[in-house]
Design a protein that fits this description.
With 404 residues, the chain is mainly alpha-helical. 79% of the residues lie in helices and 0% in strands.
Amino acid sequence: MGPANPTSGMTGVVGHYFMTSVGYFGMLSSLVVILDTQGFSAGQIALLVSAFTCASKVAKVPLAPWLDRISPRWSVLLGCGLAALGFIGLHAGHGLFLTVAALLLAGVGISVNALASKQLAAFASDHVESRATMFSVLNVAVNVSSAVGAPLALWLVDRHLYPCVTYGVAAVYLIAGLVTGMTFWKSITPPAVRAAPSWRTYWHVFKLPGMRPFLLVNYFGWFLYGQLFNVLALHVSGTLQSPGRLGWLYTLNALLVITLQLGVTRVSERLHAGRPFLAVQMSYAIYLIAFVAAYLVPGYEGAIVFVVLFSLAEMIFVPRVDVLLLGLIGQDNRAVAYSVLSISTALGEASGGGFGLMSYRWLSNLGHHDAFWLLAAGLALLFAIATRRMTGGAHPPALAPAFR
């Protein structure tokens, strides 16, 4: 059963993404300062932040088989409600134990809501003309929310209005859950599959035709993306001795995505209609050009050119991941599929960032830090070739149906 007005369903999902992302980025940017004002030591703060981060990223993995058995409208209410309770407890509770419990509860809520939001987005994309456009709009909403949420929270923290941050974020999550739950109350039917939840569902999803090559392709893309927030930061702050100008580069990245994402997606759809993996290979090619530009153009100007090209590759790659996944899995086990995808994404970004930092430092110690950009360009080329071989070119038989 679909929404009577597909546009309203899409608007509801975008609004939910925006509201919860404002709360998430606001809390993420201010959490360390808030914990410091509560008298925790540096070691305790590190423990608390790690507990919150792990819960928000990992909790959905064991919960996904159960979340696939209930309607996403209930998952959204559950996730947002738990997050709100956790953030209320963060301010109301005292002591290490209660604070850990509050942050774990908030993290689990955020993780559940993230998975439910993906399910809602997938549902809404079933009823729009272009899935790629739908997920591009969501990417814009997330970037806008990060540009709004973090500065707003830091502005409140600067004025010592800490309760406004914690209670404000709790209110945002609670309102978002209630509004989205009511918006989709009559438009999403309960899942048809009523089998008992099982870890075997993960194995079933993993064995779907084309799933393993797709997860590896996704890993490649996020491996390359990991250089943006790791090697670029080390390059600009260390090698170029311009740490104060690093923030402008990340602002440039966000502004480019906000202003150009929809246009880039439309052009990409025209160029790669019915051939989604060609779009992925195109993004790898632009990553390659970005790395070569960082090698060829000296100084801070090279970093600017790198960010512009890198942002273009990101705008092509990110929406295509969701389109490809939904083309593989259809309407069953979407929570588990997105959970599997999140593992691939996390592994790619973490290993890519770690590899980049170690390689850049090693080459810098040898006096050849610029050689890293050629190494990264070589990897981008290797990933593009591997993607083409694994997916059988432009029209992979196992992956062709249902792509839009």
